[in-house]
Amino acid sequence: MQKVSFKIEGEAKTVKLGALLSKLCVPLCKELKRSILINLEGDLGAGKTTFSKGFIRACGYDDLVRSPTYTLVEPYEFSDFSVYHFDLYRLVDPEELEYMGIRDYFEKTSVCLIEWPDKAEGLIPEADVIVHFIYSEQKRDVVIESKLLEQSSLEQISEQINK
Ligand code: ADP
Ligand code: MG
Fold first, then answer.
1. Model pLDDT, residue 70
2. What is the DSSP string of 19-53?
């Protein structure tokens, strides 16, 4: 398991982290022609949605990125890939995932950003990347783990993020 950890101070850095990971994961999902799952972990207010906004905007979407708190998923379709942004916080019954056809999302050339993945434990495939946000008042500690991304790529992110 490849792993890196660093500190980021201020919302803009969390947006930048989303953008940096999109530059790694989007080319990879196109190359592998499959879905790449990014689990976003951390308490309420830790930065998961902020990260997702940075990721989605870096893909070329310049409209408002909405938090999918009530819809569970918000789709973003680009010409040759998609980003599906999930927020499973309000998931009560796992059957809801069946109704929305969750499996289909994981069979596309896509990146799936998943807030609160533990609410659907056992129902979604294993993550390719886990981004863990640890809350402090003015900053966040971030731990990224991945079996898919190379250690050198993760280290590049940690070097670039605070430049
Ligand atoms: P979550 O989706 O995890 O509940 P949000 O992204 O909605 O969290 O909210 C995170 C809050 O923390 C926002 O108010 C944002 O401005 C702030 N924030 C995000 N990243 C940082 C950071 N690196 N340092 C300080 N504050 C941050
Ligand atoms: Mg959120």
1. 84
2. HHHHHHHHHHHHHHTSEEEEEEE-STTSSHHHHHH
